[in-house]
From TrEMBL:
EC main group: oxidoreductase
Superkingdom to which the source organism belongs: Bacteria
This enzyme's EC code(s): 1.6.5.5
InterPro entries: ADH-like_C, ADH-like_N, ER, GroES-like_sf, NAD(P)-bd_dom_sf, Quin_OxRdtase/zeta-crystal_CS, Zn-ADH-like_protein
Keywords of this entry: Oxidoreductase
Parts of the chain that traverse the membrane: none
Designated name of the protein: Quinone oxidoreductase 1
One example GO MF annotation: quinone reductase (NADPH) activity
Boundaries of every Enoyl reductase (ER) domain copy: 10-323
Keyword Oxidoreductase belongs to the record: yes
Amino acid sequence: MKAIICEQFAPLENLKYTDVPDPIAGAGDVIIDIKAAGVNFPDGLLVQGLYQVKPPLPFIPGMEFSGVVIEQGAGASHLPNGTRVLGLSTGTGAFAERIACNPNTLVPIPDAMPHTDAANLLCAHGTAHHALKQRGQLQAGETLLVLGAAGGTGIAAVQIGKAMGARVIAACSTEEKLAIAKQNGADELINYSETELKTALKELTNGKGVDVVYDPVGGDAFDVCSRAMARNGRLLVIGFASGTIPKLPINLTLVKEYSVVGVYWGSFTQHEPAVFADNMKELMGWYSQGKIRLVTDSEFPLSETSAALAKVMNRDVKGKLVLIP
């Protein structure tokens, strides 16, 4: 089968599109014929050796996918051939034509759900859901600020924030991106390339500050948000797409009485699988009701994985990207 191979931690263009042996279904495993694979910011970090974890080399990158069950190992009988599923790997393996995995990591999907949607649901919407529900404990009527609100996880946070009853403020760097955030439910818009973020937040909250901040960006925007929190607020640290990991003046958390909360969705899925399963049920319900939807910027053939990852790393994506084997 064809797959993307990372032979060493190196620039994205060093990834290889090549032939590798087909996966073998071990006891209890199933083989999935991958129809689409989601492309995420951590995938780009991982292959460059910049992520929190470093898998043994060589490896096939990619963590989320959608496809069809085509083979079962011994004891794996509850997902028959032809079952349409979405799945989450252990961080690697999805940028390929096939993958072997534990069926307990798979979620059957309805026939009406496109594989492109299914491949992009887990990481972005899963992260935003866990962040806002378990980590941020967002309540109906609270104010939610979403930074990077036109990216995959930013759009997810806007949609889920609205589904949870919050007033959503979207912050983006261009009017085009803000229009996308608006289309996905944002109540208020801030173009922080033209308007001072601190002043805009003060005006929109009547000086109270923001109850919950969803920050996948880091950098200067984090610094502003750390000074714009409401009392009992929760500043959610999702990632650092800006490339800059900010430093927190810890005295602000004392004086303003707010919390800074880390969100590591991959760890959550491993340590709290039952809660993760409940989250997935709720997300699938919201999807079927039209409360959330997947925004796919573009599709790339598997052979152009390096270009897709570069587009994500350059923050040139509105929504999500998907690879088609």
